[in-house]
Amino acid sequence: MGYITLLPQVQAFLRRDHAHFIAGQYHCSASTTRLPVVDPSTGETVATIREADEADLQAAVSTAKAAFHGAWADTLPYQRGVILNRFADLLEAHGEELAQIETVCSGKSIHLSRAFEVAQSAVFLRYYAGWATKINGETMSPSIPSVAGERYTAFTRREPVGVVAGIVPWNFSVMIAIWKIASALVTGCTIVIKPSESTPLSLLRVAELAIEAGVPAGALNILNGTGSTGQKLIQHRDIAKVSFTGSVPTGIAVGQMAMGAGLTRATLELGGKNAAALLADVDVEQAVAGLVHTGYVHQGQVCAAPERVYVHRSRLDEVLELIGPALSAIKIGNPLDEAVHFGPLANRAQYDKVLAYFDHAHAHNRVIHGAKAVDRPGYFVEPTAVLADNPDDRLLREETFGPVITFYPFDTEEELLDLINDSPYGLTASVWTNNLSKALRLVPLIEAGTVWINMHTFLDPAVPFGGIKSSGVGREFGSAFIDDYTELKSVMIRY
Ligand code: NAD
Fold first, then answer.
1. What are the tens digits of pLDDT across the range 175-204?
2. Are 106 and 150 in contact (CB under 8 A)?
3. First CA to last CA distance, the chain
4. Do residues 190 and 72 make contact, with C-beta atoms less than 8 angstroms apart?
């Protein structure tokens, strides 16, 4: 284990003139607006990317529309599954190259890039590939009685919605895009993905692999740019559906824009302020290990991660005694060093936001560990745990999206439920207890799209994922995604 040297193909890739991937190839844009791609472990620019102009936008959507009615419509469901499986194989075959590109641009530890951006992306692709041959309607018997002896029968068809705009954040730039790409392609849709301006490169390489796997030109396109490119994409009249993952304020704006653009379908996977509840009978060692594992992975930049932890007052001291040493043991450093599991925050804006929360913690909370920047170039901060003294503290209410867990004690279950549910967010929650029947009684009372018991942040492609309240609309994974990417057409026959 040591510091890894970038592969020659990664160095060559970083030197390319980056723009978009349209109609099956790297697309040379005429745009002269270049956005910097910054390595967050140094703060230095490693590449630039051209922001999409009007011509790029039109080219991406029109080729996606042509593929929707043409090459991808002509590809049989069985063949779509074969292609997605081949795509997964190619992701793995080029895994080290993709992982290195992603780590340089996002600050994610190389372990995490290999495990999630590559290995998990392949797992999800294969899961979706299995659905290709299983997306069907139903037959039904109409219920109105016949008047003159005639009979009726009816069936439904699942038809792809059309060209999808996928807008993704910077925290898992490959894996989250793969969720959308796979959902779209397996249902017969085509897609234009707009990556985050902070991590725009890895998907350009992923798209090349998709073409090598047999995805026809135009079925998958990558259009790079800032939020304003995303906005124009959503409002394009040939976009039938938006699948957005990002923050709550942007998600609300995206939802309004999509509705305003002719009732364009929108699914929104947004932020969270996820609660973990440690009940009186909790196994404290197991719970603290679980919180450290899930609350600080990728420097806390995980939408589903626990950020507020309510601990039964009788166990609070034990929890706080264990958390400090556990956080001290985390090795902070360059994410290309294989001995490191905690790299920098992903970008300057995120770094400034987390530092402001540290200022708040020093002024208003008891800092148990961290709440400091690390004295080195780049956007490094310490994993942080604080204890709040009132339930309305900002650190118990606002999503930091950083490595900050805030603890707060509770006495009764009624009080616990009030604390958990008094939030505009409803993405995930967890209950830690040795009493399973108590946990199962709490589950229906907790306002969240996913509730875990004795675990947190575990995404499985077979299990639907999404938020309630301000954390979003719609579900990814399982069979739930099919509703969002298809329209149900009813057909009635008289005989
Ligand atoms: P963000 O909302 O700032 O940006 C997300 C994407 O939207 C980016 O590609 C951005 O360029 C684009 N965008 C920005 N303004 C836009 C506009 N007006 N119209 C269209 N597109 C626009 O989010 P971020 O900072 O990149 O990501 C962090 C957020 O994402 C956190 O809140 C996190 O919780 C959330 N997130 C949610 C999930 C989930 O599955 N629920 C997963 C990962 C991240």
1. 999 999 999 999 999 999 999 999 999 999
2. no
3. 72
4. yes
What pTM did the predictor assign?
Answer: 0.97
| Ligand 1 atom 39: residue of nearest CA | 269
What backbone phi and psi angles, to 5 degrees, belong to 47?
-165, 170
Ligand 1 residue neighbourhood (C-beta within 6 Å): 167-171, 176, 194, 196-197, 226-227, 230-231, 234, 245-247, 250, 253-254, 269-272, 303, 399, 401, 427, 467, 472
DSSP 8-state class, residue 50: E
Q: What is the DSSP letter of 188?
A: T
What integer pLDDT is reported at residue 2 of this predicted model? Answer: 86
Tokens of 68: 């929707």
**63, 285, 288, 363, 395 from 321: Cα distances, Å:** 58, 11, 10, 22, 20
Q: Which of 294, 279, 302, 374 is nearest to 331 (CA)?
A: 374
Q: Residue 135's CB: how many other CB atoms inside 10 A?
A: 19
All structural domains of the chain, each given as residue ranges with its CATH number in brackets, are 8-270+472-491 (3.40.605.10), 274-461 (3.40.309.10)
Residue with tokens 């140094």: 42
| Alpha helices (H) along 247-315 | 248-260, 284-295
Structure tokens at 51: 């922001």
Q: pLDDT (tens digit, 9 = 90+) per residue, 355-389?
A: 999 999 999 999 999 999 999 999 999 999 999 99
Percentage of the chain surpassing pLDDT 70?
100
**CB neighbourhood size of 379 (10 A):** 27
Backbone phi and psi for residue 263, each to the nearest 5 degrees, phi listed first:
55, 40
Residue given tokens 């603290």 in the structure block: 288
Q: How many CB atoms lie within 10 A of CB 63?
A: 22
Q: What distance in Å separates the CA atoms of residue 336 and residue 260, rounded to the nearest whole number?
A: 44
Q: Which helix (H) or strand (E) holds 27?
A: strand 25-27
How many C-beta neighbours within 10 Å does residue 390 have? 9
Dihedral over Cα of 479, 126, 120, 227: its sign = negative
Distance 271 CA to ligand 1 centre (A): 8
> Residue 430 and residue 450: Cα distance in Å, rounded?
8
pLDDT above 80 (res 1): no
Q: Where are the alpha helices (DSSP H) in 117-247?
A: 121-131, 175-187, 202-213, 227-235
**Residue at 400: amino acid letter:** T
Strand partners, 441: none
Ligand 1 centroid–CA 170 distance in Å is 8
Nearest CA to ligand 1 atom 15: 227
371/434 Cα distance (integer angstroms): 32
Q: Which atom of ligand 1 is nearest to the CA of 253?
A: 18
Contacts of 248 (CB under 8 A, 6+ apart): 270, 271, 399, 424, 425, 470, 471
Q: Residue 241 forms beta bridges with which residues? A: 164, 265
Catalytic residue IDs: 269, 303
